[in-house]
Amino acid sequence: MSGDAARAAANPVGVHALVWVAGWSEPEARHAIARTREAGFDLIEIPLLDPRSVDAAMTRRLLEETGVAATCSLGLPFDADVSSADAAVVARGEALLTEAVDVTAALDARFLGGVVHSAMGKHLAAPTERGRRHAIEALRRVAERAAHREVTIGIEAVNRYESNLVNTAEQALALVDEIGAENVVVHLDSYHMNIEESDLGTPVHRCGARLGYVHVGESDRGYLGRGTVDFAALFQALADTGYAGPIVFESFSSVVVSPSFVSALAIWRDPWHDGLDVARSARAFLEVHLAAATAGRR
Ligand code: MN
Q1: What range defines the domain where residue 18 resides?
Q2: Are the C-beta atoms of 3 and 297 separated by less than 8 Å?
Q3: Active-site residue list
Q4: What's the gap in Å between 114 CA and the centre of ligand 1?
Q5: Which end of the chain, N or C, is less packed with Cβ atoms under 10 Å?
Q6: What is the mean pLDDT of the chain?
Q7: How far is the centre of ligand 1, averaged over its atoms, from the C-alpha of 160 (Å)?
Q8: d(Cα 184, Cα 155) in Å, to the nearest integer?
């Protein structure tokens, strides 16, 4: 097998559903899954901000029809934050995560990642030690349930304006270690790394085999290659460490937004107007740059 073929076989390449649609009615799901395939991606990442609103049977049928795979993600709301010091808020967060695990499994998906460790949005204070302990205990129970359903949980390191608990790969690794479950991995995102890490290669090497999921986003969360993210360093590190997990394009524009995302992610302007164009551009960018990194594997 050539190096390129090995890479293509190794990393499923995906796109976040919010590039296509804001909601998940049957017409929206059909459109998003068809466009994912049309743009040349292997998988679609489906947001489970409100797990009960996702019709798993309908979605699974559409996925099977098109041969597109799925992963899932979410960001917890402030009233269901598992890192809260308030036990009632933690319980709501754990219940939401439990539902999300069940919907992920019902979709025949194998991954649930994102900001599952804290509320997604701007916090006004540092996390408390009690809150951090709450998050670890809740995620340990969620991971156990997920293990029975063959679902892996990803702890996404996001920038300081979207979480107060996990901003860096080091913090994600520490949390993963303390949760101590085989099916909990680090989820990195180039957009957030560009803000919080000193470079994009070192965190990947630090994570090693504990890295399980990667989001690629540009510095303005728009077209890949038109911002300041050092993708060459990221992809070289992924190739050098033999990372074989999904690589998923994430981009948000106010043209397509889920209302709950707008304020949490501060999507106040439009990096693009045409989802298909930005997705096709990202797919082509990944093809070229992942191949180049594999060819240059040290
Ligand atoms: Mn992300």
Answers
A1: 3-297
A2: yes
A3: 156, 250
A4: 6
A5: C
A6: 94
A7: 13
A8: 7
What is the rounded CA–CA span in Å between residue 235 and residue 241? 10
The yes-or-no verdict on residue 43 having pLDDT over 70 is yes
Query: Domain tally for the chain?
Result: 1
Alpha-carbon distance 109 to 17, whole Å? 14
Q: Output the CA 2–ligand 1 centroid distance in Å.
A: 31
Rg (CA), the chain: 18
Q: How far is the CA of 189 from the centre of ligand 1 (A)?
A: 5
Q: Give the pLDDT of residue 266.
A: 87
Domain CATH for 148:
3.20.20.150
- Helix, strand, coil proportions of the chain in percent (round to 5)? 50, 15, 35
Average pLDDT over residues 252-273: 84
- pTM given for the model: 0.95
Q: Whats the size of the chain, residue-wise?
A: 298
- Cα–Cα distance for residue pair 144/94, rounded to 1 Å: 12
Segment 186-191 shows an average pLDDT of 98
Read off the pLDDT band of 298 (50, 70, 90).
low
